[in-house]
């Protein structure tokens, strides 16, 4: 049996209807922006392998630090013990985050980073003796992960449909804009005594269709929340580490969130790790002689030293001037492409923020995630040696920062061709 057949016998893949699923493509090697299959065919990883791989695949510097750490200390329980990579990473991350973030809490991925943030905010209110603030404010099309808490605060969609009755109550609001901002503000004011927190993806809703919105309106929402003592959680799992043109999307805000969730690009896409950070106000609400005020949360692999070492190596690369120059270069290329194809008859909308560009296809049938256009586009690009995973009729590019202008030009021209062909 070949690898595809063996896979089919034993593996259940994520986000995949296994009935009639296309064979899974065996990848044997990653080199920079390229993934290489068994036959030696190369694919540009234009979605950074689900948005995690910011510096390209098999980065030698990250690999060296990881193997060094593996031979020194591969893991240690993180309750009662600590280690250099975890402390150093926290020391380096906290000053990079906007506002005054004081503490890092480690977990395993983006969803757990969100769970931790939610538990911190719920228990914050309980610890203060307030039992009426139990609700969350979130965006209607948000995506915050796939565990139950993270699903609860995500928009209701086909992803959550089988579980909707089991999810906790959330106040959903539309993305803010000039027209609705006053309505949103009064809605928040009317609910304020019930709201524990407001969780949001700053500037861009990722899995919700790469929907972009302006910092100035988010600022207004955060301001009204903070005036109403509603804790603000910036879910920067996707936007963190340079994606939106700044190291963190929240740098583009004037108001400062109380908590941050990070993952995806954190380790450079090398291995899983999640981070939740908070300011001193939140941390101090848990300091008590009363044991019931403890945050009883942790994972077996909390602050895994190897994952922390990968993050330190990735962060060092991110902070080099060349990386920021690459981010700005990608941004400029995206702008040029946007202007070039904006008038195309099949382009319904096109938008970009930082290194992310999203093109919405004009379709006759439903524009849902389930449209057949999506599968046709996916296969079309794969045949041309490009990994793009459209969200329904929305094709987006979210590349590793080392991608060259020539590689971008190839992706752009293939998209232009697809607009004519499909
Ligand atoms: C991907 C994502 C998550 C979930 O992260 P996982 O590591 O996949 O659990 C949470 N929030 C946002 C904004 C994301 O894009």
TrEMBL record:
GO biological process, one term: biotin biosynthetic process
CDD domains in UniProt: OAT_like
Record-listed N6-(pyridoxal phosphate)lysine modification sites: 264
Site (Participates in the substrate recognition with KAPA and in a stacking interaction with the adenine ring of SAM): 15
Pfam families referenced in this protein's UniProt entry, alphabetically: Aminotran_3 (PF00202)
UniProt superkingdom: Bacteria
Keyword Repeat assigned: no
Pathway participation: Cofactor biosynthesis; biotin biosynthesis; 7,8-diaminononanoate from 8-amino-7-oxononanoate (SAM route): step 1/1
One term of GO molecular function: dethiobiotin synthase activity
CC terms in the record's Gene Ontology section: cytoplasm
Gene3D superfamilies, alphabetized: Aspartate Aminotransferase, domain 1, Type I PLP-dependent aspartate aminotransferase-like (Major domain)
Residues the entry annotates as binding pyridoxal 5'-phosphate: 110-111, 235, 299-300
Cofactor(s) this protein requires: pyridoxal 5'-phosphate
Family membership noted in the UniProt record: Belongs to the class-III pyridoxal-phosphate-dependent aminotransferase family. BioA subfamily.
Oligomeric and partner information: Homodimer.
Function per UniProt: Catalyzes the transfer of the alpha-amino group from S-adenosyl-L-methionine (SAM) to 7-keto-8-aminopelargonic acid (KAPA) to form 7,8-diaminopelargonic acid (DAPA). It is the only aminotransferase known to utilize SAM as an amino donor.
Identification of the protein by name: Adenosylmethionine-8-amino-7-oxononanoate aminotransferase
Organism: Pedobacter insulae
